[in-house]
Design brief:
Layout: E1 2-16, E2 23-34, E3 36-47, E4 51-62, E5 65-75, E6 80-84, E7 97-104, E8 110-117
């Protein structure tokens, strides 16, 4: 297992449709710097602003290897899981598998850590 760490900024946050008071959807974009040099598009649906699911397409490089992959996010107040979607890796990231973690810092910044495997 290899670990990659990056920081990221949220470049856009756009609501989709009209929230119904409990469920809302957004599309956001991010830029990553560090071991992950990439941009991403996230499609997220949240419930009561406490739980969410999302798919995030990350395109760029992971430790210098070029390609893209999809992260599946699932979060509740009790549990958060980010998993690389099987068979979503492209180009030099084909066969990528693993998990990711997001840490929010007091200053508002974010750290993104990916623990991953790639076929040899």
């Amino acid at each position: 297992m290899t670990r990659a760490t990056a920081s990221f900024t949220v470049d856009s946050f756009d609501p989709v449709g009209e929230p119904d008071g409990i469920i809302s959807s957004v599309v956001l974009t991010k830029t990553f710097t560090g071991d992950v040099e990439a941009t991403s598009t996230v499609r997220m649906t949240a419930a009561a602003q406490t739980a969410y699911v999302a798919l995030e397409l990350i395109t760029g490089t992971l430790h210098g290897r070029k390609g893209s992959f999809v992260l599946l996010h699932a979060a509740t107040p009790e549990d958060t899981r980010w998993v690389i979607v099987t068979d979503s890796g492209t180009d030099e990231l084909t066969g990528l598998s693993g998990t990711a973690v997001l840490v929010r810092h007091d200053d508002g910044s974010h750290t993104f850590t990916v623990d991953y495997d790639l076929p040899k």
